[in-house]
Design brief:
Length: about 140
Amino acid sequence: MIILNKENGVTFDVLGQRLNVTRPTIIRDLEEIKAKFSLHQILIHYLNESLQYQAMVDIFHSESIQLREFSESHFVSYNTLYKKLYRLNEVLAQFDLKFETNKKASVSGNELQLRFFTQSFFGTLIAARHGHLQMFDKKQSSI
């Protein structure tokens, strides 16, 4: 998967060498995947499986989550969960919010900004579920 995450993409030849298959096999397999799954379906699946997404939904419903309990129920280590959730601060900073973690995890900041983030976050997810894939960014939005 690392090879697929490179900025410039990957050629069929390099991918074929890594997977030990021919170029026509890769093209055929990609066409089959394309016929069975849309980018929209893949995005929705990714979101539903994302720890960050699941944590944000739980925080939205109950204002905070118990990190130890959440990590155990999602079969990940406490440290892995903490690192993934800590990365949310990059997005939250655009809204002048911060992800607070101790034994509990919550989002803190100005109430208006928190409401704006919640609307943007869930609005984007609802739009994605309906086939609109544009991701949110505070710089593109207005209050």
